[in-house]
Amino acid sequence: MLPNRTSNFFIDSVGEITTQAYKGDFTVKTILTIGEKIELETEKTKLSSDLVNVSPELKTVSTILAELKVRVIESPNWWKESNNGKDLLDDNVIFDIYSKVIDAVNDWNNTLATKAGKKIETGSGSQNPPIQS
Fold first, then answer.
1. Which segments of the chain have a pLDDT < 50?
2. Count of CB atoms within 10 A of residue 83's CB?
3. pLDDT one-digit tens code per residue, 62-97
4. What is the DSSP annotation of the chain?
5. CA atoms lying within 13 Å on the CB side of residue 48
6. How far apart are CA 15 and CA 22, in angstroms?
7. Cα–Cα–Cα angle for 2, 94, 8, nearest 5°?
């Protein structure tokens, strides 16, 4: 039997630019279905297709925003009102949330490996959200 494919975590972050407090509970998908993987790639393409000579930093942010759009199931109102992070001025908040998603995905992979009697290295596996540059 597979581990639960969702995970919950709490974010408590302060914006580096606005100094605004961002707090709240998130529920995210720790593993994606085939359809969700397609949705993720479609979203990545939409966010970066109009960019010419995109910097590695902007490509990373685009990838993270696409991952969060597909993976976040439940979120605080401020996240929804910020267009899933796209309208935030504080990119550190997006990185903080994404870091928690990576932790949740790694926990899922480790739980699965433990059930199978295997040990995996943190950060490996096809379900880990990639940060591409």
1. 124-126, 132-133
2. 11
3. 999 999 999 999 999 999 999 999 999 999 999 999
4. -PPPSEEEEEEEEE-TTT--EEEEEEEEESS--HHHHHHHHHHHHHHHTT-SS--HHHHHHHHHHHHHHHHEEE--HHHHHTTTTTT-S-HHHHHHHHHHHHHHHHHHHHHHHHHHT----TT-STTSPP---
5. 22
6. 7
7. 30
How far apart are alpha carbons 9 and 130 in whole angstroms?
20
Q: Cα angle vertex 126, ends 104, 41, to 5°?
A: 95
* Spatial separation of the C-alpha atoms in residues 33 and 16, rounded to whole Å: 34
Is residue 68 within 8 A of residue 93, CB to CB? The reply is no
Cβ-proximal residues to 96 (8 Å cutoff; 6+ apart), any chain: 11, 13
Which two three-digit tokens encode residue 15? 């914006």
What is the structure's pLDDT at 126? 44
